[in-house]
Amino acid sequence: MRVVFHSMSQIMLQTNIVTGLMFLLGIFIGMPLMGLMILLATITSTATAKVLRFNSIEINIGLYGFNAALVGAAAAFYVSPLLSVLIITVAGSIIATLLQHLFLRYNVKVFTLPFILVTWGFIYLINYCCKDQLIVHPPLPSDTKLIEFPFYAFGQIIFQNKLFIGVIFFAAVLFSSPIAALYGILCSMITLPTLFYFSYNETDIYNGMLSFNVVLCAITFAGKKMVDFLWAMLSSVIAICCSYILLKLNVAMLTFPFVVASCFTYYLKLFLDKKKTNKPTKG
After folding, report:
1. DSSP string spanning 4-41?
2. What range defines the domain where residue 197 resides?
């Protein structure tokens, strides 16, 4: 269970048992089936990693489980009936674990890319061969208040669209890293004008559908220095631009904007840091 909770907390880049427990609790309240699939996914991922003798420290802190957990959540969110959900959860978790291992071995920062690739894969296959098994979700309510939308954004990271669950997720991150939680709120509020500039649907904006990637970017680069805030803002704006492109292409967004924005920002930051370190000094 420690690995399960660590895996859950890693979804928002934390390594904290209590945070993971709060995430899982919120998901069970919002959608019990999704909670069960997340448990199945993380257990499958952990078993796969252990059988293949992957690094035990990486397993224990949840680095193999969080992508699988998101695959289980996506299967419960997008697919019916139950048998299909179970098959996708187990098979998808194994594939996500193998992909994660590949990236970890080559020390490539990809965040949630294994989850995205697996989820895009099963959505495409089901849409191609048995479209009736894809769940069509009704439009979200349009009465969300402006002050509430950052909490909706926290919830949407794990496919939850209820305000109180978003508050639980925010509190979970706040417990582990107060500055990361506050960055998530602040960056989502500051980038709000950018969303309106792109003429997004207001209902989607206020329900966090277009800001959950921003929250993840903000958490990734949260820090106490002004430069950390600038990196967080840069990645947030890139994520919004990427979201706009995916919407125009009618592609399931998932956390792909976050991955693109955070990888670009991370490697740009790494390049500039190395350049600064290697800069010759006078005298």
Report:
1. HHHHHHHTTT---HHHHHHHHHHHHHH-HHHHHHHHHH
2. 146-275
